[in-house]
Amino acid sequence: MRKLALYLCVLVSLNASAAKNRKDVPPAPLPAVVTNAKKIFLSNGGGSNLAYDSFYSEMKQWGKYEIVGSPEEADLIVELAYRVERGGTRVWSSTNTYDGTTQVHSAQIVDPELTLTIFDAKTKNSLWSEVDHRRLARREKNREKEIINSADRLVEDLKARVSIPQ
After folding, report:
1. Contact yes or no for 56/42 (Cβ under 8 A)
2. How far is 125 from 118, CA to CA, in rounded Å?
3. What is this structure's pTM?
4. Is 96 helix (H, G, I), strand (E, B) or coil?
5. What is the CA radius of gyration of the chain?
6. Which tens digit of pLDDT belongs to each residue from 105-154?
7. Number of folded domains that form the chain
8. Rounded distance, CA 36 to CA 132, Å?
9. Structural domain for 58, as ranges
10. Is residue 96 situated within a structural domain?
């Protein structure tokens, strides 16, 4: 029995060390159309004007692409959408060991996310998309800060991926 347990421990540790983790996976380059584009049209996919305003400001400050006023003038259409996914309700219970009473608790499962999608302006085909899950916050001021941070993370990731050699 001990040999079997030792064998299983060795097998599990070898599997764990052989498994890849996130650091081992290099980021894939974006399509050449995205990296070579000169003009983009920024589209607000809805959900949060604050997210769009922050994203627009960061993209303009970056200066990689010229932001144009209509999709017809652009090489790419870059859409930012804010959604709050509702995944139902989580229910759990806890028991007070002192008096033996049980309480039932519930919380709504909420996942606020910002989705960045890049479309080819001519074909309208989706070329690349990324989702950033905004951190939860109770206060309105902190929710706004997290929306801005989420938009900033999307721009930073786009910058990093544009610089990956083809």
Report:
1. yes
2. 9
3. 0.70
4. coil
5. 23
6. 776 666 678 899 999 999 999 999 998 887 766 787 877 888 888 899 99
7. 1
8. 24
9. 32-80+113-162
10. no
